[in-house]
Fold each of these.
Amino acid sequence: MIFSATLFAQAKTGIIDKTGIDLKLFNAHQDYLRGDFAEALKKYKDCNTAKPNDASILFHLGQCYLSLNDVDNAISNFEKSESVDPNGGDDLHLNLGQAYLQTDQVDKALKELQMYKQKYADDAKKIKESEVDYYIGQCNSATELKAHPVKVTITNLGVAINSEYDDKTPLLSDDGKTMIFTSRRPSMSTKTKKGSDDDGDVVQQSFDNIYFSDWDSATHKWGLSYMMQGDINEPYAWNAATGISADGMLLFMFRNNNTDAEGGDIFVAKKSHSGSWNNPQTLGHPVNTSYYEDGASPSPDGSCIYFMSEKPGGYGQADIYKSDKIGKGEWGDPVNLGPAVNTPYDDGAPCLGPDGKTLFFSSQGHNSMGGYDIFKSVMTDSGKWGKAVNLGYPINTVANDMSFTITVDAKTGYFASDRKGGQGGRDIYMVDLSQYPLLAADSANAKPTGLSVLRGKVTNSKGKGIEGAKVTVTDSTGTKIGNLQTDADGKYYITLKGNANYKVKAGAANYKTQTQAIHLPESMVGTYSMQQDFQLEKN
């Protein structure tokens, strides 16, 4: 306020320069501090026209462009500023290093960041607050991981799935024939809302909505994508699919609207017998809070969900939590997954692999190459999560790589990325994992392990499904490896190691328990699926 008053006093007394540059610079800086980067950019451009070789103005132009995600223009102005005066801005080397890293110019980024660290070597507080060591770590991770690429082939899914807008969070049905994903593309079949662009012009604002695509067995490609109809996509709301149950009957999603989910909550929708999706219902407390919750994904056996939350008490702004299912539509108190998974930075997009032990997630922490990287953590026999492992380059890049999911046979993965070369925004990519085993069971011998599906239905003597029946699976050593509950139709589903023997026990209140010994085969060309039904008799 004192600075502002001084400037206006100078203007009255004629001390300020005749072009009013100082006042424009002050107003531009205020716009920048308020987060109005587009307006600040306009004012700084006016100042730059009057003083084209001013290192400080060029630096501020670069900051505005960087905040608006126009990295190329940011670099151009930062480089001009540095050529005029290497100290044209206090954070010039830091910001230019960040911009270089985002454009995969890792060596240049590292040089700038080290210059910044050397400049403020005697200011421990500034070094800590700038997080320059964090960005240097990303440069080192990028150099190391790019020097040892993993054996994968990555394919952009093309215009059948991707658009010039954000396309993200791919989900697969258990048979791999249907993909559900989220897109921000405009659509004639959903409402949009008026907003303003960076120049202040009125535009139609598009919201996230949920789409699907079916696999074309004839062409071996994904077919054209369509927006889901019914109650899934609420008008004037952000709707995002985040997880699907193994039997394909439950769709977990994020919704942000101005009524029952202001700020963002987790919902679940159930598929009806006709195949349409019912109106999504909030999970409520204790999963949802007054803070931001998102990314809910169920375990293969449906006994729990993993999700992210920004509620306080975690290790960073966004942490990953687990909540156990304790009854029909009821969830237990969330448990933080701890420091092996969560970091001081954002962690989210969890997805438990079909082995029930390997958690895939996205993080800005650990040894990220830049932005979000995809990691995995394997649950130990004691139930603790192991050290997070970066999935490596080229799955991860200096861009934001997120929302990884893997097929039941563990041979194919899908994820979203805003890396260069896509259709625009974030795109969905497919990764061939046939030479890069990722599941916990695979890691010891670096060889794919056959996984198979055991499914079935528990009914009464009249053939009607028994909801909430307990199905227990034990292996040949007598170790319990599955503790399931049937859904409303009496169905159960679990992914198990193939070519193995199991005992399956089914029981329900007021019914006699049945036990069946089975041999679950495996398939060399896909995922073997076995049906084991139980018809229980009354006590």
Amino acid sequence: MDLRMDSEDGLVVGSPEQMCGQFHSELMMQLPQWRQRLSERPGSFREVEEQIGLFYRRGGAMVAAGLLAEVSRLPATRQVVEELEQRAEVALRPPEKRSRRVQLWGGLIFWITTLYCGPRERTGQGRGKQGGGVYVELAAFGFGKGCSPAVQSNVARQVALCPSLQLARQELERQGLKLDVKAVRRIGEQTGLRLLTARKRDLLAWREGKVPAGSELSGKRVAVQIDGGRTRLRTNGPPSRKKGKRRSFTTNWREPKLLTIFELDERGRMRPRTRAWIDGTFAGPDHLAELVAFHLHRMGAATAESVTFAADGAPWIWDRLPGIVARVGIPPDRVHEVLDFCHAAHHISLALTAFGIPETEHRPLYLEMRRQLRQGQWRRVVSDLADMAHDELAESEMQREVNYLRRHGEAGRLSYPTFRRHRLPLGSGAIESSIRRVINLRLKGNGIFWLEENAEAILALRAAVLCERWDETMDHVSASMARDNRLDWNWEAADLTLPPVETSNSKPPSKSVTPGPSTD
């Protein structure tokens, strides 16, 4: 691998020592300018300090380039490159040398002459299912398309965190990386799609039994919470036949579905200084359910002390829990199902409103029934509401609310005193917070709408940032894409709406009970 700095005819990069010397000479030339500016304007210290930091970022990129040039010539690196060629998922042609422009973290541009392997079965009529070729030497170091791993990681991280691409570009420029908005968009979206592709490969490997169960959750008390948000997706219409006329499109609301998995402390809350796992998808409920089962398996939930599922009353959640438990292999007597208390209480209020209770009587009656519900007297609450609704039609709104509470009570999801006694969460506040932080603060807003694949990519990136697993996620993605750089992230979900299995909702973990209906 041959590196040249700044242009194809620029300085040849040989070693990190050479680059250190080059940086030192540039530093000695720059130092008088900083000294003069600061002596003339003492108040400019902030600007000088920031310029020094950017200058040292450039120096860091020079040293990294020197290390890259030196290590690429080592026999051990050659062996890694040959193994990548042999283990590639796509049959490759013999390598040939090509020159490529690459940007490193710190803003430096390098021209690299490196080995390129094209797909062996390419016909010359486009890429086809074999995808593009592989720069095997760059793949061994985790490079993407025209940028280093650090550039990919930091650009994608800013795209996920900042409220717009323009602000992400400005923040990157303050860090010494000058890119236009199109480049920021391209790198961010490609990194997100790479993450989704790696996730799909892991999930398919799990289906085939190739992913061993982990131990992260072994022996711990675990909470799983699921919910959905709202985001507008863009659907493009047919191209316009009139020259210069913009393409029409429609924007419809879609429900991105999110999950969070975390360890519980002695009070039934998220244990401090632990990291929750957050993931989600814009696909259907079966896709989200399969993701829940996959993450629980690879984190070792089958050997957890207890697993508590907490959510609102959406039927698509509760219908799939038995299938998730069966796929993961969690003992039924360790599973608890909790209907979020605030949602349950809200349905009491809706029932009273539907009955037409006067405002002066509504709140005292609601507070009394809410107290009874929290004390586990859900049968009394349902009975009182049913007596009030005995003259209502079966399809009436009040009867629907009564049936809602009755079904969840019979399923054991309203046993709040038992949940408190076993130090389990009574609500789903963690997933509500995740919906706000992951979806609402980035993907939802006035005038914001997304193509589905872009929204899916940003959702995955932002979830990885907020659950504080960014670096390990990026390392895993680089390793996966080094073997196969084709982007293919869609998958057909398995149907997890299996017959109900025994769960323990109102008894200690050592005992088993048979719940009632598991749907709304």
Amino acid sequence: MKHGFIKVAAASPVIRVADPDYNADRIIESIKAAQEKGVKVLVFPELTLTGCTCYDLVMHRTLLDGAKKALIRVIKATEGVDMLIFVGLPYRDGSRLFSVAAAICSGRLVGMVPRTEVAGTHFAAPDSSFCHASLGEGYETSVAPDTLFTSSCVPELTVAVELGADMDAVTPPSVHLALAGATVIARMASFPMTVSSRADAELSEKYQSRRLIAGMVMASPNKGESTTDNVFSGLCMVTENGVILAEEESENGLAVTELDVNMLTNLRLRQSTFGKASGSLTASWGEGLEETTLTRYFTKNPHLPAKAADVPAYCERLIDIQVSGLVKRMQYAGLDHCVVGISGGVDSTLCVMICARAIKRMGLPSTNVVACTMPCFGTTSRTKSNAIVVAEQIGAQVRVIDIGESVNKHFDDIGHARDDYSIAFENAQARERTQILMDIANEVNGLDVGTEDLSEFIDGWCTYNGDHTSMYDVNMGVTKTQVRAAVKHIAQNTDDKVLADALWDVLDCPVTPELLPVTNDTIEQKSEENVGSYSLQDFFTHKMLICGFTPKKTFRLAKIAYGDEFDDEELIKWLKSYCRRLFSQQFKRSCLMDGPAVEGFSVSPRNGFLIPSDGMDTLYIAELEDLEHELGLR
């Protein structure tokens, strides 16, 4: 349960209709199998102990009494098992019959939750109050709708349940339960197998878990149900915030994975609606914290689709967002030219191609893109050549402006030695380029379109009032990972071989600001040697800024995602660098220009991720130093 990871499972054993004793054995077997895997929350289908296809038999005392006795057997079998288990059965309260979920943990009957949508069934709808339930042998509890089962050990873990047709209600109980604080919904299904049942269930689970920012654990009946009118498949599924993490459709199926309730509560903090509902009964469960062995997949590229087949459409949509934003801004301002500084790097390459698409969409000639390459002390022939080739192939107007003389004159004016390669030496070049771009934009009735990407704004790897600023930045909401994916997508799909070759070489070049002198025309100043791998930085951004994880949890997930690519010392080194730069470079983010977000996250000072410009990184660095002690690195 460390870092909020909870191992959960949906189970669907093959049962016999109207044979509770046999079914109890199958349930106990599933519990043991789940226990071996470290499961803490286990969900069975509706009416597991009797079968959901008993029809009129469900009203007979023989079956009802048999179900109660079978439930007692299951409860006793869970003694010493620290697991919250939901088992379905029919339960009679006087002249009312309910379909209930019995919540069991470590030999205790924690509570019973009745189904509320009962039209067309033998079951009664519960009222807003709760009734007392007695199974005999001292097992007593309440039968109440809207019950929340809160872990005694993990505050973020609160489980609620909905049964059968409750899942398909216009306003299902899960809505109220999530608003009341439930982070995990146990969905005890009773639907049969159809040609579309799996696809329908996937759509429902993804939509509802995303809508409620919740984990969903769904189990449906298996092939042991009656085939009088339907066949059942035993579909089991675990979904988290719109993503299916585990799915199983087989006899005696068990879908097992880990839900991250820490992430779910972090995401809910951005909403002001969760935790407001009232009127729910709360029951506690759980005996202690344990380490959760993680089996779920963590990608190195969380800013891109998990499936490679989805990347092309994703990139096209990303590009369309950039183009649409640029077109709107130019039309509003009455401008008809785009001015771009091209360096041969991946960011400016994507930017100039975005400008070409925007100009085309506006019905203007391609030469209305003014691509300026401004070589100076650190420019290599490779990057300069790539920049010019890309610009020429898209039909842009290319201007080559050597700024060496202007920068040297500036050094003389301020009394800076020409061989003093300090920060002033580097920044003077970046600011000279920005001045040129803005002045040309004014000259041609154009817009100076910025090339800096989201990753560089987060780590501050840009010159304040140099490449840091522009009149509109199309890359402002795009990570380096996404920029590279978009350029690769264009390279793979263009019919222009010359353009494609240049794009592939751009992708092959190391990221560099090219601000320090070169020898032998070789790229020597490499950004990732100073700020770390951009893939790693983008991973940190997703986990720390979007998911709200701590540095220790981020480290743990990076180790899983990257395997042996980085050792512990390297990961902590770059995590420290990331945290320090996140705070120290905020002053650059506090005055950023306009630019579109592409995945609902940005560092815009108007509506993006904001921190004070003089905030302290003390707690973050201290946590990483503590981690170093734990790993024996200090």
Amino acid sequence: MAGLGARMETIGGDPALSSRRFFATMTWLRWRMFVNAMRSKGATGELVVRFLSYPIVAIMVLGPSFGAGLAAWYCVNQNADAYLAIPLWVIFVLWQFIGVSTSASGPSFDLDSLTRFPIRYRDYLLMRLAFGLLDLPTVIGTGCLIAMIIGIGAAAPVLFPWAAITLLVYALCNILFSRMIYTWMERWLARRRTREMITGLILIISLCGQFTGQIVQRFSTSGHHAPPSPWMLKTVHIALAVNWVLPSGLTAFSIEHMHGGDVLLGLAGFAGLLIFTLAFLLTLHVRLHAQYLGENLSEAPAAASSKAMRKARPAAAARAEVKSAFALLPATVTGLLVKELRILLRSGPKLYALVMPIFIVFLFSFRTAGLDQAGIAHGRFNQYLFASGCAYMQLLFVGFIYNSLGTDGAGVQFYFIAPMRMREVILAKNLMMAIILVIEVAAVYITSTLLSARTPVALAATTLAWTAFTFLINTSIGNVRSLVAPKGYDPAKVRRQNVSGLSSFISLAVIFAAVALGQVALMLCRMFEVSYWAAAAVFAVLAAAAFGVYWTVLNKVDGVAASHVEELTRELGKF
């Protein structure tokens, strides 16, 4: 960034020249950051994982694009242009859903820092819009719309120019809408209480949608062929009416009437789409202009009143309570453990994530009830409900284990200057996760027993031994990855990857391998008609061996941390 001001023209110079120099400098900067990143430790592994992910990304792009193009060709070929709204709505939903559920591949630096340089707001706005155009949701959505243009052109060549213009504007509308949503959500998520409320609201809405469908399926008197209720029909009619005044419906409306020769109605639909696009741009402009003017939100708490300070408990009493609760642990580990507990209790998204295994058990139980009602035999699936919940729970622990230092931010520097070892820090974090694991396993077992069948003792013992084995293996690898590939955690950013790409790949490989090993063990027990206690004994031995590996790795984390202290402080010091 140091050369940015030197490479730019002054504000009083030629605007076109200034903009060209600005974007050229930013392109050069991004290239140099990429080249320099390849010289850091672990860059080779990250590059390999990125290349391995390209075939998967290609499938994710080409598959939906082929489906969208085929659907567009069929609708136009059958003179059912109005049904183009269906694939357009699907594209819109996937565009936003994939955007929220994936990390951004855009800038590796904060674009807000550009406001420190003498740049025009126009250039700042264009730069914010340009970055992220190669993100996965944008590539998939744009690919689907290009395929729809080709499909429409193949079915009606005369309609091709108008379809291309309309769908490209629709693509711009989706891009601006997603940027608007992310930017405003980052504004709302800048405060911890707001983050907790929004995350809870999103979680409740998503779970209510799941529960509604499963409850209707379970308690319907006529199974899957129950007649629709009047209120559901009314809701569908209202949704269809609203569809034609929203961007997806307006796009289909414009193409339909242009195909039918109603030019004025086609232009009217296109005008409505342009109005939505400009409205999204204006709403995005409000946020970006505030950031351009230097808005800086802070989570610093207000000064405590004297009355509240008088009511605060003395520090000595608090330390006495902590000491009595963790009397068997060293004082340093005790203090770190309490710190981790307080961070967890103040993080709404993490608490919501830890509740998810229980809701997953609920959903699985409703699905088995639906299979019973449909007359589909599902064998002894209910007995494996506890095992399924524990397997799903391992996926949720990835973000906690493989980036355990991410929440410490710049505070990680104090670990190297305080009279403590990094081994104690990692041990405290691991103990916190172990306590959470025990609580989660107990909650999943109780929930599965109350909602479904009681898990046989032998199968429950096998599940517990498998869970301990998988947790210890993940923790051993995660402790090393947390030190060699840290990732800063910013709760106010909507789309930020919480673990590095290589760490994510390793964690998924470990979990899938552990699940496959568990499935093989259970299958062999059934094949040879051996009790599940044999599998429990095998996994107990593996868990003991995994604990030995964990203890060996734990005793070596001080040396690993010392050799990666610069990477830790540089990466986590950004947050």
